[in-house]
């Protein structure tokens, strides 16, 4: 049986923490929290009790809202 080949995700399919996303957007982490609380901001995903953002979704959100 052959071992499955691992592939690296495309460069734009990167997952970021809240801190990394806030740094990228040049806003405070609290601003991201405020946006989430109000139903706005870039799309986010919950996994294992943590929040993550996908770079390509953050970029798309910037284009739509920037």
Describe this structure in words.
The protein contains 3 helices and 3 strands; from the N terminus they run E-H-H-E-E-H. By secondary structure, the chain is α+β, with helices and mostly antiparallel strands. It has one domain (15-65). The protein has a 3-stranded antiparallel sheet.
Measured as a percent range, the helix fraction is 40-55%
**Rg, nearest Å:** 14 Å
Sheet/helix structural class: alpha+beta
Largest sheet: 3 strands, antiparallel
Strand order of the largest sheet: 1-3-2
Number of strands: 3
What general form does the structure show? globular
Order of helices and strands: EHHEEH
Tell me the β content: 15-25%
Kindly, what is the distance between the CA atoms of the first and last residues, rounded to a whole number of angstroms? 50 Å
Sequence stretches where pLDDT stays below 50 over 5 or more residues: none
Roughly what is the average pLDDT, rounded to an integer?
89
How many domain units? 1
What is the number of helices? Answer: 3
């Amino acid at each position: 049986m052959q071992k499955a080949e691992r592939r690296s995700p495309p460069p734009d399919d990167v997952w970021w923490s809240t801190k990394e996303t806030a740094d990228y957007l040049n806003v405070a982490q609290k601003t991201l929290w405020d946006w989430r609380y109000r139903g706005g901001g870039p799309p986010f995903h919950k996994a294992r009790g943590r929040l993550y953002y996908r770079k390509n979704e953050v970029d798309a959100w910037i284009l739509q809202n920037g």
